[in-house]
Amino acid sequence: MQIISWNCKYFWSPRFYGFSDFKYNKLVTEYPNNDILIIQEITYQEYIQIINKYGYIFSDWYCDGKNSITGIAIFSNKYKIEKLVDNTFNLPFRYIIPYKIIDLDNRINEYILFSVWTKEYIKNDKLHKYDYVENLIEAVKYYKKINLLNEKTIIIGDFNSATTKVNIYESHKILENLLKELNFSNCSILNNTNMEYDITYIDNYGNGFTNDYCFISNEIVKNKTVSFKIGNKEIWINSDLSDHCPIIVEFTSLRNSEELGPILDINSEESRKQFEEWFLNEEVINLDKK
């Protein structure tokens, strides 16, 4: 399963406004094996256009409409997407949306995925009083209480952490410690990738930060090989497509085809012999000779 998360930046350059066809096609051309797309700063009109033009079977879009017309969308043709909480508007944290992700070809591959775009607090709003990463801290606490943080959970998106190698805000430290206590791993440092502070975002002054993250349950790490990549700045930022690079996370099974045994045609005599030979080699009882 390959997941792409990208803040497409609604207005970054007059040349590339919103989540245009050009941006969409650039994204899926660069990452043709994507199974799930998560897009931050996309309008409802753009979301509908993508569905209608490219025929996505499963999708969702969320925006609370309080201080922006842009929201966060998720698209897939392989994984069924089910929103798990209906009253998101009434929760005190913004833009952290839980979904059940179901592989229709193999229902063993079922996950809880939190699509994230942390937002600023709203002045004089008694409900939405948390600022950026504080939203995610409170969301993690809340969803833990209602048992949505299980052994197969993915938290991915634009955290707006603004971390660098020399400066880590206290709120991000609190978040990382909380997730560590709950048995989550940061994908950017798995498998000795050491990409924890690699730039995913550049501000208007040319300063680089790490804003985009993916954390996964340790149970996934035990059973999957996890690959984490950051898109090339030359392609995504320096070309004025966005102020963010996409992040690409891919999970593949640790069990290879040899461990699973041969894929055989049960009506073939040759396959039957291969099947028996494999059983004997694996020291499994051959039922035909019992």
Gist of the model:
This protein is α+β, with helices and mostly antiparallel strands and 290 residues long. It has helices at 21-30, 44-54, 133-145, 170-181, 218-223, 233-236, 257-260, 269-281, and strands at residues 2-7, 11-13, 16-17, 36-43, 58-62, 70-76, 79-83, 96-103, 110-117, 153-163, 184-186, 201-202, 208-217, 224-230, 247-253.
Question: What can you tell me about this protein's structure?
Answer:
- With 290 residues, the protein is an alpha+beta fold.
- It folds into two domains: 2-254, Endonuclease/exonuclease/phosphatase (Deoxyribonuclease I, Chain A, 4-Layer Sandwich), CATH 3.60.10; 256-290, no CATH class.
- It has helices at 21-30, 44-54, 133-145, 170-181, 218-223, 233-236, 257-260, 269-281; strands at residues 2-7, 11-13, 16-17, 36-43, 58-62, 70-76, 79-83, 96-103, 110-117, 153-163, 184-186, 201-202, 208-217, 224-230, 247-253.
- Strands 7, 8, 9, 10, 11, 12 and 13 form a seven-stranded mixed β-sheet that branches. The chain has a six-stranded mixed β-sheet with strand order 5-6-4-1-15-14.
- The protein is globular and about 65 Å long.
- It starts with a strand and ends in a 9-residue tail after the last helix.
- The model is unreliable at 256-266 and 282-290 (pLDDT under 50).
